Amino acid sequence: MPAINRSELIQRRLENFLGTCLLLGSLATLAGLLGYLFAGWAGLLWTAAMVAVAAAALSGVPATIVLRRSGALPLAHWQAPRLYQIASELARRAELKYVPLLHYIPDEQINAFAVGSAQRGNGGIAITEGLLRALSLRETAAVIAHELSHLRHGDTRMLALASFLTNAIVYLGLFAQLTLLIAFPWLLEHEQGIPLISLFIIVISPTAALLLQLSLSRNREYAADLEAVALTGDPEGLAQALEVLEHYQSAWLESIFGKKRRLPLRHRWLSSHPPIQERIRRLQDLTNPPPTPPVIGIDCSHERADGWVQIPVRRLR
């Protein structure tokens, strides 16, 4: 297992932190500007209050509701002792008070996601049947570390708040555009002008908000990759898991569009996840050539992960 390039890890962490602050701050600023354009300082205060209430409400949504709607089934410790051993060790390394509950989704797609908050004790990580069938235990451990990093840093709540802000900005912006369109004859008749900067903000705000939200989501994926490596000490394990994911995604795309079809750059801007090859490249930048012993403290060999889950799983077709 290659050693971690600590200086590269620290630099990437700083870049992701600053990027998160910039993107989330830009969304909040855009929402505040629209509120101010609608009702002056009162509108700005109402926007701030709305964001505060939304943040409080979103933090109280139980993770079990989201997991149940996704068809996830809770895994008891006796059903997946090895996976819980890995999750417990990672939670200890992350200095979390609670170990996230693991859930199983009977779906052939290779996927995993986190919901809730590990700090509040209601965090959960869902893993699909396809992932358990396709990945080794080492690769599955890296994926669990990635999802636990999302929980550790409150990414689920942050992205939910960003989604709320984006929706508010889109609806406000479209409402303002419609209002201007209806009022345009009256403005011409009474020779009333609109400041160019205000018009510019109203026109671009819906699109800008959507792009900022997607960029924030990609930023948090990069950050979760880095934090997963910091927890496991194994960038290669996560890179291998991503390679498996890319293989299945490429096969699916080729079945629809034909061979060697790549997503155009403009479409990548509209994706909530970064390109897998770029994520792998960044992980490879974190490794030093000299091999060192595993540092996760658990023997995550190349065994298939599904061998450690005591539930009926179907073979992938």
Automatic annotation (TrEMBL):
The chain crosses the membrane at residues 21-39, 45-67, 159-187, 193-212. Residues 78-285 form the Peptidase M48 domain. It comes from the Bacteria. One of its GO terms (cellular component) is plasma membrane. It is a multi-pass membrane protein. Binds 1 zinc ion per subunit. This is Peptidase M48. Keywords: Cell membrane, Hydrolase, Membrane, Metal-binding, Metalloprotease, Protease, Transmembrane, Transmembrane helix, Zinc. GO terms for biological process: proteolysis. Coiled coil: none annotated. GO terms for molecular function: metal ion binding; metalloendopeptidase activity. It is found in: Cell membrane. It comes from Halorhodospira halochloris. Belongs to the peptidase M48 family. InterPro entries: HtpX_protease, Peptidase_M48. Its cofactor is Zn(2+).
